[in-house]
Amino acid sequence: MAKSSKYTSKQPDANGIIAWSDEENKIWSELVARQLKCIEGKACDEYMEGLKKINLPHDRIPQLHELNEVLGKETGWQVAPVPALIDFDEFFRLLANKQFPVATFIRSREEFDYLQEPDIFHEIFGHCAMLTNPDFAEFTHKYGQLGYAAQKKDRVYLARLYWFTVEFGLMQTEKGLRIYGGGVLSSPGETQYVYTDTPEISPLNVLDVLRTPYRIDIMQPVYYTINSIHDLFDISQMDIMSLVEEAKELGLFEPKFPPKEKLAS
């Protein structure tokens, strides 16, 4: 994640409070109102229960200590303020210590519909509700520990596991397809898109996931489903690094998307 960001994270004051402007609070308010409508009947029950627990304010960006009180009580997690972009080493270190990185900036109005890098709306609205769930929280913690200990070449494989679960995970339930991945839950376009006939949706097999290429700047051509959130706990107990070795031997699947267009020189 060595790219630079045009955004700058805000620094908390001595009491851990971040001073958000009226416009930033307004953007948050509009994003929350829009996305709550989008996820109706689409988000998984565990997410909706978590949303009630964290009790997000709709009129302003929440302070991190408000989230920490709830997360600490429910699963022992905390959110940690970070710069707009952090490297893999820091990302895994935080998760290994049950700290979820939150970039303390919010998107500009020009990028209201979509921005490539995660802002505070994506991190909090997309992920924090799920972190109140013990199975999801344990999976994320174990993932951080594995990633922190892993070599650089193995982290690329682990990144795919995170991408197709924590970010873009779907669940088959008795009520039909439901979303638990924060990348979908915080995106109006993707929330609708997963219910079209366009993407390929397959049951999650960890080895398949480790071999599936992805691009961050397009709608996903492939999603993987679990049957219940407890499946994530089961995955966290697997020998994932031996599966990474197997994936390296087998090689990656053919990408289901075109390569990025190279800019003409």
TrEMBL record:
<dbReference type="InterPro" id="IPR005960">
    <property type="entry name" value="Phe-4-hydroxylase_mono"/>
</dbReference>
<keyword id="KW-0408">Iron</keyword>
<dbReference type="InterPro" id="IPR001273">
    <property type="entry name" value="ArAA_hydroxylase"/>
</dbReference>
<dbReference type="InterPro" id="IPR036951">
    <property type="entry name" value="ArAA_hydroxylase_sf"/>
</dbReference>
<dbReference type="GO" id="GO:0004505">
    <property type="term" value="F:phenylalanine 4-monooxygenase activity"/>
</dbReference>
<dbReference type="InterPro" id="IPR036329">
    <property type="entry name" value="Aro-AA_hydroxylase_C_sf"/>
</dbReference>
<feature type="binding site">
    <location>
        <position position="167"/>
    </location>
    <ligand>
        <name>Fe cation</name>
    </ligand>
</feature>
<comment type="pathway">
    <text>Amino-acid degradation; L-phenylalanine degradation; acetoacetate and fumarate from L-phenylalanine: step 1/6.</text>
</comment>
<feature type="domain" description="Biopterin-dependent aromatic amino acid hydroxylase family profile">
    <location>
        <begin position="1"/>
        <end position="265"/>
    </location>
</feature>
<feature type="binding site">
    <location>
        <position position="122"/>
    </location>
    <ligand>
        <name>Fe cation</name>
    </ligand>
</feature>
<protein>
    <recommendedName>
        <fullName>Phenylalanine-4-hydroxylase</fullName>
        <ecNumber>1.14.16.1</ecNumber>
    </recommendedName>
</protein>
<keyword id="KW-0479">Metal-binding</keyword>
<dbReference type="InterPro" id="IPR018301">
    <property type="entry name" value="ArAA_hydroxylase_Fe/CU_BS"/>
</dbReference>
<dbReference type="Pfam" id="PF00351">
    <property type="entry name" value="Biopterin_H"/>
</dbReference>
<feature type="binding site">
    <location>
        <position position="127"/>
    </location>
    <ligand>
        <name>Fe cation</name>
    </ligand>
</feature>
<dbReference type="GO" id="GO:0005506">
    <property type="term" value="F:iron ion binding"/>
</dbReference>
<keyword id="KW-0560">Oxidoreductase</keyword>
<keyword id="KW-0503">Monooxygenase</keyword>
<dbReference type="GO" id="GO:0006559">
    <property type="term" value="P:L-phenylalanine catabolic process"/>
</dbReference>
<dbReference type="InterPro" id="IPR019774">
    <property type="entry name" value="Aromatic-AA_hydroxylase_C"/>
</dbReference>
<comment type="similarity">
    <text>Belongs to the biopterin-dependent aromatic amino acid hydroxylase family.</text>
</comment>
<keyword id="KW-0585">Phenylalanine catabolism</keyword>
